[in-house]
Amino acid sequence: MRQDIVIIGGGPAGLAAALAAKEAGAKQILIVERDKELGGILNQCIHNGFGLHTFQEELTGPEYAARYIEKVEREKIPFLPETIVIDIGEGENGEKEVTAMNKERGLFVIYTAAVILAMGCRERPRGALNIPGFRPAGIYSAGTAQRYVNIEGRMPGREIVILGSGDIGLIMARRMTLEGAKVKAVAELMPYSGGLKRNIVQCLDDFGIPLKLSHTVVDIKGKKRVEGVTLAQVDENKKPIAGTEEFIACDTLLLSCGLLPENELSLNLGISLNPATSGPYVNESFETNISGVFACGNVLHVHDLVDYVSEEAAAAGKHAAAYVKEAAGNRPLEPEAEKGTAADGTLKKTISYREETPVVLEAAAGVRYTVPSTLHLSRIEDVQLIRFRVDDVYRDVFLKVYFNDTPVLSQKKRVLAPGEMEQVRFKKEQIAAFPRLEKITLRIEKEAG
Amino acid sequence: MDRLEYDVVVIGAGVSGSAVARELAKKTRRIAVLERESDVCEGTSKANSGIVHAGFDAQPDTLKAKLNVQGAKMMKTLSKELDFSYKQNGSIVVSFEEDGREQLQELYERGRQNGVEGLQILSGDEVRALEPALSDEVKAALYAKTGGIVCPFGLNIALAENAAVNGVDFYLNTEVVKIEREQGGYRILTREREFWAKVVVNAAGVHADTLHNMVSGRRLHITARRGEYCLMDKKTGGLVGSTIFQLPSANGKGILVTPTVHGNLLVGPTAENIGDKEGVNTTADGLARALLVGARSVKELPVRQIITSFAGLRAHEESEDFIIGEAEDAEGFFDVAGMASPGLSAAPAVGVYVANLIQARFPAADRADFIAARKGIPCMAEASREERKRLIAENRTYANVVCRCELVTEGEILNAIHRPLGATTLDGVKRRTRAGMGRCQSGFCAPKVVEILARELHKDIGEITKSGAGSTFLNGYNKETMSASI
Amino acid sequence: MERKEMICINCPLGCILTVEQNETGEVTVSGNTCPRGAEYGRTEATAPKRVLTSTVRIREERGRVVPVKTAAPVPKEKIGACMEALKEVEVALPVQIGDVVLEDAAGTGVCVVVTKGIRG
Fold it and tell me: Whole-model pTM?
């Protein structure tokens, strides 16, 4: 099987990337999806609040997904359901080799000019949090509970404590309450919530569910099924404070303690990951250090809003299509040709812009990371968007941007929080006009200066 | 109450009980194994270091020394015969003090007396050449190339399965509550049934003293010694190739850092005597201690890569040795008790040793139809491309990936469910196939595995458990207990 | 005079709003930074509404549900009654996005609609 672009993952990122790539002229696009249907995690996110930016209305997750799925079906972009990619490798002639498995075709290889990584993320499990106690049934990630309640109509438990105030946890607090469970507390290790404010109000406050900031679970009781958890307050170093322990009887502990991009395939391929995001470093084209491999959505960095995922993925799709065009020397790849039989399969090894030394984006003083992390000047957008997150809650500060060492922007920010993704835009002319630009630095500073 | 009669009843389907049952099955006997839990390998056997000790640690002329060395020697052949994961990766005991050499020398001598081959004492630099990740603090080390690692579940399950194939009846969810001596044998009462057997083998782990004391006046006293561990991501399994011990202290062999046969990195165990014989909970202090002590062995312990932690209980008997043999005042009652470390390493030899003791006292004829070999569950994750293709060609379910972290397919899970002594719980599937043992710790695959278990066992998913009665995952349907208080 | 404090949810600022309502029903909002905050405070204090999302059963099929939502926001105090009403609802497959599964949920005048197309 030979393709122009293989997109790994049919969630919101994969769908938007596929549509944009098609629109930009890519011919052979294939979405590989591990589930039975497209839409990814949106299928179980039945709450509303999606699409305000993209469609100017509040949709539920399945409705948001449906808008993209319908277009993908209309464009006749094929997808392989219930298929797992087990390896991505670099072929001999500049091609990528995507090894996948499914029941219908068994083990097979897809040869492709470009790959878009859109595998999303997973939830941090109990083990990674190293919570002491027994290991009974009744401990779920919030997402697993969400799947049970929203897709299978089953209740994971009746008396619930939630650790972590990430959005999925907050949403599940409301959801389980509405279905008749008693959510006894939401404990958050940090002194602030990791979730959106609207979710605190509408999911916890509306139902009188206590949010215990600077608290964590220090023990889990129950040999077969959870019988209760012990919460304790933590100090500024996040260590439990002796004497603050409180036992709460419950049959279920839900964990909503952060999301981790799924980059096992990327690592095997030799893609360099940013430790701040656990996602790949990408350039302005959302291309990783490996030419022809692009990344977007939560596999790149965890987003707060799906609208931004779609926007970013569309850019990745467009750039991947441009890459294919250049790599194939404007010759469309022979569709469905067997490997080795078509000379057309050979791709150009040098991609013009990759010869350029890119401008480096530096995250400094309070900025945890930026996406992208490099810019090829020849490829930047008319309005180049830079997304970033901060490392703490800041009030009344300034976002400062420096080109080399020259300050070029100082933006007042009333509040910046790690839970919210921030962005800053530059016009192409402004970047291009700066002489010998090597580095763009983002900093959070107290003074306007 | 119906009464089931056997020649031998083995109590406990951990690694010792299963090894004994399999050996006994080589003769013409009617054998039953009674297990309290819903699966085999549910006690001490499931939560330990998975080490095949070379045998230099135990005091010479003890059963521990003898059976450890024998067991370790049998392990490789047995791993081929019964198809479980084993690797001779070598063990290293490190000393952080210059004068630790004396203690290392002692171990060396003890090892030689115990019959351990190929021991070597190395300098700090020599051992770091072998294991570059070792701490610069390491001044000297004992290297035992015959040390190994084994999948503890794989060994236990293989022994049990093979016993079952050879006609041993396994009664799961069967807790012994009372044993009475009856003319020429024992009456064994469980909650549901009554058993009678001429010979009883007591392999009940931390509870072996309770059972022993039901029939013998010579009291045993077993203390549960808890060991806590942290397991790290497969990314880190290559940190060390060998198993790294520190010089032993009064509390056991101390905290080790080792690769597992599946490529994870394991750190632990702590050693703490506790009163609760079901106390397999981890503690903040214990986990911190395991990491703190373990970190000393290597330059950098990748603590951010922890994927899970667990605790196991070693059955520690006051005499410090294994208690194996016929109780002096209870004819036909054989203890396999106090099976603390190196109980796993010794298990194959323990099986033979106990079977011989029983044969000497209660002879039975050889049987010609004993099936010695067992084929394990195919493993897609470790299979070559050709093997994968072949498996899929035979059965399409081998192309349906259920656990993506460990690359476990539906085919493997079906195999685990439908083989002899097949899995009936999520943990059962996990221990047989590794589904859920990866970095996401079953967040992704648990619902899928539950669904497969329900389908194959003709149950509702609400009835499927993590580890037997009382451990269901689900609690009814949406909107069943809604209150008007919203 | 009635007085309520609340956090504005329009943006990350999270202004703490004070909403006061006098005897004649006149509402004043303070503590807001922008007009959207004032609007939020007014609605939230006088007639808070929410879109309710939930699921309904599929006829003769346990272990699968269809996601639904109220087609418009409903008064907050009616959410419990709406959930109660949804308890009785069963749908037959296939369903399309927008299919009405319940008219006039709990007397709110708002209907409940399907949010995911599911084939039979």
Answer: 0.93
